[in-house]
Amino acid sequence: MALYSQEEVVIEEIAGGEFEREPVPESHWKSWKSFLGMYAGEHAAGTEFVIGPLFLTTGVSALDLILGLILGNLMAVLSWRFLTAEIGTKFRYTLYFHLEKICGKRLVTFYNLANGMLFCFLAGAMITISATAVGIPFDMEMPQLTDTMPNGLTWIIIVLSIGTVISIIAARGYSTVAKAANWMSPIIVLAFIVCGIVALFQLNVNSFSDFWNIWGNGSEPFPGQIKYTFWHVFLWSWFANAAMHIGMSDLSVFRFAKKANTGWTTAAGMYVGHFIAWIAACLLYAVYLRSPEAQFFLNNGQAPPVAPGPLAYNAIGFFGIIAVILAGWTTANPTIYRAGLAFQAILPKASTFWVTILAGAIATIAGLFPAFAMRLLDFVALYGFILAPIGAVIVFEYFFGRKIGIQSFYAEKSGTNFNISVFWAWLISFGVFYFISVQFDIFLSFLTLPAWLACGVLFLIFSKYFQKPLKT
C-alpha cells in the first residue's frame, strides 16, 4: 500500500496534479455526489436564462416545448450514461489523451485546438450572461439580440473582472470546480424555482389552463428567428451538449467516477436545468414581453432583448442578480477547465494552471462580444455538430472495433502521428452534412446524429482498409 501510494504521488506530479496523461488512480475516484452537484450547477446555469427566452422567440407551442424537452433530455442522459460514463470509467483517460492514442499527436493537435477554442467561446457566452447581472447597479446598457460588439467601457470592465475570477477558480483544478458547483448549485436552483413562481403570479396564472395559454399553440417567430416544432426542441435539447456526451468530452470528467452508473447524475442537470430552469426562464421572458418596452420593440419589427440579469432582477430583485452571476460562474468554470485540458494536450510541458488561465483569457475576450450569447441556440448547435463526430471514433472503436478486426489505439501502437482513417471519416461526414444544411436550409441539429453515425461507420471502414499489421 505504501509503495502504491508513492507511485500515485509520482503520477500526479508528472501529470501536473490532474492526471492528463495517465489513468486516474483509484485513490482519486470521486463519489456520485461530486458529479450530482457539478451537473446540477453546470446545467442550471446562466445560459438557461437565455435559452428559455430564445425558445419563445421561435414561436414554439407549449406542447411541443414540454414534450420535446422531456424526451430530448432523456436521450441526453442515456447518451452520458451508456456511452460517455461507460468508456470514461473503463480507461480513465482525458478525451485528448484517449484521442491521441487513436489519432496520433499531429492530428489530435488540430482537434484539441478547435475543441479548446469552441469551449472558450461557449464560456465567453456565460461570462456575458453574468455581466448582464453585474451591470444592473451601474445602470449599464444591456446588449440587444442583434449586438455583436461591446457597447461601452462599463461593459468591458465588468466582463474583464468576471472573467478573471472565473479563470482563477477553473485553473485550480477539478476538485475546486466541483466544490464551487456544490456550494452554488442549491442557490441557483432555488432562484430558478422562485423566479418561475413569481413569474406565474405576475402573469396571473391561477390554473393549468392559464399556464398553458401563456404561449398556447405558439406564434410566429420573432424577426431573425426560425419557427421551432417538437422535432426542433427534441433534437436541440438532446444535442445541446453533444460535444460533452456523444462527442466524449466528458470522458475528462467521468474518468474520476467510481462507477459508470455515475452517468445517471446528469439527469440532475437535464431536468432541473434543461427543463425546470428553461421553462422558468420562458415565464420570465413572457412577463417582460407584456411590458411597454418589449411592445415598443415588437411594434417596430424588432426582437426584444434577452438580458438575463434584468429578467431575474425584475422577478426577485437583488437575489436574482446574485443567482445570474453564480449561474454564469458554475457553467463557465467546468467549460474553461475542459478547454484548459485541450490546450494542455497541445502544450504538454505547460502546467495545467497556466493553460487554463490561457483558456480563461480567451473566454473573457469572447465574452466582450455579445453575439455568442445572443445567438446561443445557433452557436450551440454548430459547436456540437463540429465536435460530436470525433466522439463517434471512440465509441465505434470501443463497441465494434474488435468485432470487425481492427486494432484499438492504432496510432499509439503503430507509432503514427496522423491516422488518416480518422481524418477522412470526420472530413467527409462533416463536409457532406454541413453542405446539406447550408444548401437545403436544414436546421443543423437535425443532422448531428447522421453526421455522428456516418463518421463512426466510415472510421471502421477506413481502418479496416488502411490499418497495417502490427509487429509483435
Automatic annotation (TrEMBL):
<feature type="transmembrane region" description="Helical">
    <location>
        <begin position="420"/>
        <end position="436"/>
    </location>
</feature>
<dbReference type="InterPro" id="IPR030191">
    <property type="entry name" value="CodB"/>
</dbReference>
<feature type="transmembrane region" description="Helical">
    <location>
        <begin position="183"/>
        <end position="203"/>
    </location>
</feature>
<keyword id="KW-0472">Membrane</keyword>
<protein>
    <submittedName>
        <fullName>Purine-cytosine permease family protein</fullName>
    </submittedName>
</protein>
<feature type="transmembrane region" description="Helical">
    <location>
        <begin position="353"/>
        <end position="373"/>
    </location>
</feature>
<feature type="transmembrane region" description="Helical">
    <location>
        <begin position="153"/>
        <end position="171"/>
    </location>
</feature>
<feature type="transmembrane region" description="Helical">
    <location>
        <begin position="228"/>
        <end position="247"/>
    </location>
</feature>
<keyword id="KW-1133">Transmembrane helix</keyword>
<feature type="transmembrane region" description="Helical">
    <location>
        <begin position="311"/>
        <end position="332"/>
    </location>
</feature>
<feature type="transmembrane region" description="Helical">
    <location>
        <begin position="442"/>
        <end position="462"/>
    </location>
</feature>
<keyword id="KW-0812">Transmembrane</keyword>
<feature type="transmembrane region" description="Helical">
    <location>
        <begin position="379"/>
        <end position="400"/>
    </location>
</feature>
<feature type="transmembrane region" description="Helical">
    <location>
        <begin position="110"/>
        <end position="133"/>
    </location>
</feature>
<feature type="transmembrane region" description="Helical">
    <location>
        <begin position="268"/>
        <end position="291"/>
    </location>
</feature>
